[in-house]
Specification:
Outer membrane phospholipase (ompla), Chain C, 12-stranded antiparallel β-barrel, two-stranded antiparallel sheet, 2 helices
Length: 333
């Protein structure tokens, strides 16, 4: 029954995702037709003195979604009050000059839901920093090093019963610090495949109560564990239209030192559709599988590893920003 509910939830999520993307393409087509009409009689002339070269490209997206409901003697039933708030900040800074490139991204997300009967529960909590340097070897391939830090802001709980909660995570519990050397294939600014046969990863569990039960694969009583393995990271960012943004990242890691056949998966998807100047619709869909992360049974005891799914849909305020720093290219000698 639980698997059926999960599958139905995923189906609704992907149908909603397809609807958003389809709507984005329709809006893009309308915008292109309008632009062709407006520019049909305009001659474009390039200034031969324009030798400006872009080295930095920066920007990002901020979303804030708020929902509130209150009931009094409502015959249909429901909680007396419910409030939900979620926010997402996704920023980037890309550098390119000659054979050198340096890509930096930071995603910060936090959300909660408060109801009369259940109290306050988290709905989202994420810190994800990626910094990648590459040296161009030609044919879209880069010799690269990648650094990644991933954790969360606040304690997380599982709720197996109405009056029961079990601590499952905390700030820096876990935290993943990854340093990798490999090859990066970047055919364009929107798509990247990073391949590394040599990656070091430190798993940190700062919370002593979680460390004592060997949470997240650390030895009982230890606060960290070093792993050495292979790493693959695929990223794709696209402006589907002037009103629709899509971002996805898929990370795969295999630990040579312990059960290398058990590949850890971390996959995130974000779709943001701009409705008006400040109003947007947002869909966030994430999937995590890690053999070292145990599930929580209905009685509150630890179970085996399981696929983790997260879906956040909302309508709220959005702000997209970008800033480009330019540098005049050196004249030819």
């Amino acid at each position: 029954m639980r698997n059926l509910i999960v599958r139905r939830s995923l189906l609704r999520s992907f149908l909603f995702l397809l609807l958003i993307i389809g709507g984005g393409y329709v809006l893009q087509a309308q915008n292109e037709i309008r632009k062709l009409k407006d520019q049909s009689n305009i001659a474009v002339v390039k200034d031969p003195k324009d030798t400006i070269k872009m080295t930095w490209k920066t920007g990002g997206l901020y979303n804030l979604t708020f929902n509130q409901a209150a009931l009094s003697n409502w015959s249909a039933g429901g909680d007396k009050s419910a409030i939900s708030l979620s926010s997402l900040l996704s920023v980037y800074a890309y550098y390119a000059n000659g054979k050198h490139s340096w890509d930096n991204t930071l995603d910060l997300a936090y959300g909660f839901v408060n109801t009369t009967s259940l109290g306050t529960h988290k709905s989202d909590d994420r810190i994800d920093l990626v910094s990648k340097y590459g040296y161009d070897l030609g044919k879209k391939w880069y010799l690269s090093t990648l650094f990644n830090f991933r954790s969360q802001f606040a304690p997380g709980y599982n709720y197996p019963g109405n009056n029961t909660k079990v601590l499952t995570s905390d700030f820096l519990a876990p935290a993943y610090i990854l340093l990798s050397l490999g090859m990066d294939y970047k055919p364009n600014d929107n798509f990247s495949v990073f391949l590394s046969p040599l990656t070091g990863r430190e798993v940190i569990v700062r919370n002593d109560s979680l460390a004592s039960v060997a949470a997240f694969g650390v030895d009982s009583g230890k606060n960290s564990r070093f792993e050495l393995g292979a790493f693959v990271s695929v990223t794709y960012n696209a402006n589907i239209s002037k009103t629709t943004i899509y971002k996805t990242k898929l990370d795969l890691f295999s630990n040579y030192l312990h059960n290398p056949q058990d590949v850890s998966v971390y996959w995130t998807n974000i779709v943001a559709v701009k409705v008006t100047g400040v109003i947007s619709m947002n869909l966030s869909l994430a999937m995590i599988y890690d053999n070292d992360i145990k599930s929580v049974k209905a009685d509150g005891t630890a179970g085996g590893p399981a696929v983790q799914l997260q879906e956040v849909i909302g309508v709220g305020l959005a702000y997209k920003f970008d800033n480009r720093k330019r540098m005049v290219a050196k004249p030819a000698q």
